[in-house]
Fold:
Amino acid sequence: MLDDRTTAATWPAAYPQGYAVVDVETTGLARDDRIVSAAVYRLDAQGDVEDHWYTLVNPERDPGPVWIHGLTTDVLAGAPLFPEIAAEFAARLDGRVLVAHNALFDWSMIAREYARAERTAPVRQRLCTIALAKELSLPLPNHKLESLAAHFGVVQQRAHNALDDARVLAEAFRPSLHAAAERNVRLPLLECRPLTEWVSAPATPRIGHQASYQANGWRPSRKRPACPYPNPGRYEADKPLKQGMRVAFSGDTSIDRELLEDRAVEAGLHVATSVSRLTSLLVTNDPDAATSKTVKAKSFGTPIVDEAAFTQLLRDVAPADG
Structure:
């Protein structure tokens, strides 16, 4: 582990200048669920805590799994609405890399709350501590926060309390960051793009916050029409994608997954939910992850590219044969 006397001299110059370790508790896991509490620990470039902040948030709906987060309707009734804490939350995130355990979830929930409030979270990059643990090959039995905490001797006091979970993660992130710096490991940073697909229903008579919430909704998932083009086969490196190619996605993406799939469909590609011998291409930012899709892709010899390469390929998709 890095010694404090040698840290400054050996610290990788490309590492970020500050971090916001975040945890949010929510009414559930779906796209239209809401945040009920949020906590941020601000850390400096080398992972030392600068300050922390915590707030309850009135979700304007049923609080969901009270048995997990412990926040009842009565407790949340007097809490501020998200738009009322959005500015303070943003100030805590501004100019920093968002760090979270399963960062895609926390970022997605935060981005959707800002979209509902017709604002944008000032986050440009995120770092998932699960991905960092994989980069460091930490000998963890699983990817739960409690396992990462135990590995570094961090004591959890109130699991699923946003403030304590953020504290635990901040304390576990610092040694992870130092281990990465000591070995000059590339941090698994992903771009954060604000979500702009929040849609409002036509104006209707509404009574109270609950009705207002129900009249608006995150764009629902829907069944896409079948791809009209035949499958031309597998993608070949250094050649363009061709309409009709079957594309599958696996793992965390910078762009909201459904928006990325929409772009693929609009370009004339077939979005597949699984990988088979007919799959033309697998898109993943973590090709070494042992997910069912990556394992199958490798066994079939299916080409694999990352999200950045795929978005470049989407700019110039060749027309279907005939």
Remarks:
- The longest strand covers residues 35-44.
